[in-house]
Amino acid sequence: MTSLPEPLSAKATDSFAYYTIKDRLPVILSKIADTVYRLKNTVREQHGEEGTKELKDIVGGISKLRNELQTDKSILTLEDDRSDVTTWNKYLEEQTTLHGYPPSWFKSAWLYVECYMYRRVQEAVEKCNVLKSLDVFEEQKQKAFLNSQGAILILLNYSMKVIKDLEKEEELDVEKLFRQFIQVALWGNKCDLSISAGFENSQTSCPLDQVETLKDHILIDDLKPLWTCLRASAPGRVDIVLDNAGFELVTDLCLAEILLSTKLASSIHFHAKAFPWFVSDVTKQDFDWTLQTLGRSNSIAMNFFVQRWKGRLSNKSWNLQVHDYWTLPFDYSEMKMRCSDLHEELSKSSLIVFKGDLNYRKLVGDRNWDTTTPFAESLHGFHPAPLCTLRALKADVQTGLAEGQAKAVKEKDAEWMVNGNWAVISFCDKTVQ
Ligand SMILES: O=P(O)(O)OC[C@H]1O[C@](O)(CO)[C@@H](O)[C@@H]1O
User: Which CATH architecture does the domain made up of 138-428 adopt?
Assistant: First the structure.
């Protein structure tokens, strides 16, 4: 086997990694500090002096972190008592031994240091007593959801009509529905709050029209083999490794619903993050909040789905799973070796759907691949089950393109790799070492 390409890193000053670490991450950290500071009156009312002190400690921790990042200090060990501390600290040791110097923000692998930043933010919260369950991104995530209400309503009204037609046994083209809901979930990934450095990024256009208007922006379309695979194993277990809360989560829930209602799947296993991550990623709290909020509305479609989805959670056709591996800095080719229980769990699936950019980066190891490297090869042996990725491009890594395709798209849009306007549906049903 030929050697692997280098991991992406801010060492390359013309890279998106460099721009992210130099400009985007400090903005995200400042925004966290502002948001937390604005909670001071509420926290004082609810938790008195202890809360006020903890809030100050969080803001202090975030400012210190921003300073470490901007001055390219070494990565420090974690000092809270979360279950993953030992794994993080051991990895830091491993990296120091491997390279002969301690990792730092601008010298080490982008994937590692960016994940570390979110884990350090969590450290500041974990060290608290009364504020231990604070989600520093909660306000942004909830605002983005509420600002996407129009698009959510259109999608849920349409989905309700589809379900009712299916129940009436109307002759519906199931493959067409599958293609449509996969693409809605794909473009749901355009909206995320970390690419916009935490600034407003809600879904405002009609998600169904978008499927048509953005068709030519899908650079890899593996819908056909994906459909064939799902059809052959139907109805089986489908896993969805979630990405962002807000509009994107609703598109994922609708996809899950359609897979079950059309009997393409018998159960859905959603995978959420164990703590607030990359600004807008879904935690269990976000998942629950989304259902509660839909349930409080007076829209018929929202209420219809909340009842249906609560039923699915209690009869276990929907399952929500949380695992620390999703918030560790490892790529997925390391899963079998580092975390065999999750790998084994995923191997029970008929199809694993990985949502979003960060999952893609972890699938392909966040390396400087030639864009024509086959997707299966870039997975570097990761294949617990047939898998696909639904990803809007927001980082300068891509595999599976045809010869000349990268050049052609770059001529149309210089920012194609990072602006979220281009996407891929890549599927793999075999292991390639
Ligand atoms: O929510 P997604 O699609 O995983 O995107 C995560 C974002 O974080 C990054 O991975 C790095 O900031 C970007 O590449 C992307 O903007």
Answer: 3-Layer(aba) Sandwich (3.40)
